[in-house]
Amino acid sequence: VEDKPPAPPMRNTSTMIGSSIKDPAPLNHSSKPLPPNPEDKKKKERSIRFILTGGGDK
């Protein structure tokens, strides 16, 4: 039993798996995998840009 390393938390693994299967978007995959919609991609880009810029651009 001591040989085995402690298992990582489920959330961490699912996020890694989700991001490796689809485009790397752990922000979205942590909640639930969304279908690849063009609108969804735009929303993702906007939300990422919003986070990076701090929401200065409206």
Give a structural overview.
The protein has 58 residues and is an all-alpha fold. The protein has helices at residues 10-21, 26-29, 38-53. It has one domain (10-53). It is 55% helix and 0% strand.
Q: How many DSSP helices? A: 3
Q: How far is the N terminus from the C terminus?
A: 55 Å
SSE string:
HHH
- Beta-strand content estimate: under 5%
**Gross geometry:** elongated
| Count of strand segments | 0
Using only CA atoms, what is the Rg? 16 Å
**Helix/strand structural class:** mainly alpha
- Structural domain tally: 1
Average pLDDT figure: 59
Oligomerization category of the chains in this entry: single chain
Low-confidence stretches: none
Main beta sheet, described? none
Region (Disordered): 1-58
Annotation keywords:
58 residues, mainly alpha, 3 helices
Provide a brief overview of the structure.
The chain is mostly helical. It has helices spanning 10-21, 26-29, 38-53.
What topology emerges from the helices and strands here?
Elements: H1 10-21, H2 26-29, H3 38-53
